Amino acid sequence: MCLAVPAQVLSISDPSRALALADSGGVQREIELSCVIADGPPETLIGAWVLVHVGVALAQISEQEALASLALWAELDDGDGA
């Protein structure tokens, strides 16, 4: 089973390699965008929500879908570390 988490693209860190800084629930990481770039520069994805698996954005999703997923993750994290 694979797990992809929603993240919002904050900025482009290396346009030539389609690398971006993204935020997922307050955690910021560099991700790779080449799978979700359509016809245009990576900058067109700033502010967009994507599903990320092992550092690669696999699909663009709506903000509503992303926030619903993040809410479910927060609900699962009951704070006991388990």
TrEMBL record:
Gene3D superfamilies referenced in this protein's UniProt entry, alphabetically: 2.30.30.140
Pfam families: HupF_HypC (PF01455)
Example of a GO MF term: iron ion binding
InterPro entries xref list: Hydgase_assmbl_chp_CS, Hydrogenase_HupF/HypC
UniProt-listed PROSITE patterns: HUPF_HYPC (PS01097)
Transmembrane segments: none
Any Gene Ontology biological process: protein maturation
Signal sequence coordinates: none
Similarity field: Belongs to the HupF/HypC family.
Protein name in UniProt: Hydrogenase 2 accessory protein HypG
